[in-house]
Design brief:
It is built from two helices and eleven strands; from the N terminus they run H-H-E-E-E-E-E-E-E-E-E-E-E. The chain is α+β, with helices and mostly antiparallel strands. The chain has a single domain, classed as Jelly Rolls. Strand 1 and strand 2 form a beta hairpin. The chain binds fe (iii) ion (FE). The site of fe (iii) ion (FE) has 4 residues, from strand 8.
């Protein structure tokens, strides 16, 4: 098994998240403190390995940066090519979105008697942190805010999100189960 080097800003971030999940299972506290740690991490854009910034011409990419050995949380780099977007989807666990580069448009959805209704739209710019969870609102669609540039956001989830069965909602109102995959097969190293 590969040993991952975890130093510098990412190393300190993982250490703080570890301490947090050791100390609480309370979703509000996880989102609050986890959100503060993520804001610190993305305050500077000088730590993400080049290998986890590469877009794909057709699909948005999801590079696994770290996964807790006990699956209590995972950290993923989302790389959006110009104009790329997710389907409407849920997470089923708490999640944080930290904008690192470029921008995203996030649209929240509510399920009202089996009908999907679009709610608020938020624009995320570098340094901004968004939150999702089954308690505070879990269904959304995320899109690159730009048609002509790559955007990157760092996501934190309250599980190994690559193992979680969740849902996409089609425009015709159907619900489909899915499990998201990771683009990379090897974890990146984070040097000091
Ligand atoms: Fe999402």
């Amino acid at each position: 098994m590969q040993t991952q080097q975890l130093e510098g800003k990412m190393g300190r971030f993982i250490q703080k998240l570890n301490d947090l999940v050791d100390n609480t299972g309370d979703e509000a506290r996880l989102l609050e403190s986890g959100g503060e740690y993520l804001a610190e991490l993305i305050a500077e854009d000088d730590w993400l390995p080049e290998s986890c910034t590469v877009p794909h011409p057709e699909y948005y990419q999801q590079y696994l940066l770290y996964s807790d050995p006990q699956d209590r949380f995972s950290v993923v780099s989302f790389v959006w090519g110009p104009g790329q977007k997710t389907p409407v989807h849920d997470h089923t666990v708490w999640g944080l979105i930290g904008m690192l580069r470029g921008g995203e448009i996030e649209t929240s959805y509510e399920l009202k008697s089996d009908q999907l209704v679009a709610g608020e739209r938020h624009s995320l710019r570098p340094g901004d942190v968004g939150k999702v969870s089954p308690t505070i609102g879990d269904v959304h669609q995320v899109a690159n805010a730009f048609e002509d540039q790559v955007s990157i956001s760092i996501h934190v989830y309250g599980a190994d999100i690559g193992k979680v069965k969740r849902h996409v909602y089609t425009e015709t109102g159907e619900t489909k189960e899915f499990i998201s995959g990771y683009t990379n097969t090897e974890l990146p190293d984070f040097a000091a």
